[in-house]
Amino acid sequence: MTEINIDTSALESMESLLGEQFADTLDFCCAEFERLGSEVLATIGKDREAAIRHSHSLKSNAAQFGASSLAEVSRVIEQNLNLDNLAEAIDASNSLMAQVTGSQTKLNEWLASR
To answer: Which residue ranges run through the membrane (predicted)?
Structure first.
C-alpha cells in the first residue's frame, strides 16, 4: 500500500484536545512513527513478540493522529504476526517505511497549513 491517507478529523480532535502542545506532540509522534517502524523491521522474522508489540504501538499511535493508511499497514502486520503468517506480515512490512515517511510529510503539510 503506497497511497497515504490522513484522517483530518482525528487530527482536529487531537489539536482541540492538546491545544498549544499539539505541534510539539505531533513532532514527537512523527519521530515515534519512524522509531517504531524501524523496530518492526528490525524484529520481524527474528522476535515475533517484539514485532507484534512494535506494530501494535505503531498502529495505535498512527490511528490516534489520523495516519490512517499507516495504521492499516501496521494492523495488517500485527494481525498476520498474531496468526503466525510471517510471509504475509513481511509482505505488508515492505511498504511500512514508505507509509511512515509519507504520513510524516502529509501530517507536517497539514500542520503548516493551519
So the answer is: none
State which amino acid sits at residue 86.
L
pLDDT digits (tens, 9 = 90+) for 58-98: 999 999 999 999 999 999 999 999 999 999 999 999 999 99
CA dihedral (53, 105, 9, 26) positive or negative: positive
DSSP label at residue 44: T
- CATH number of the domain to which 68 belongs: 1.20.120.160
As for how many domains the chain has, the answer is: 1
By 3-state DSSP, what share of the chain in percent is helix, strand and coil, each rounded to 5? 80, 0, 20
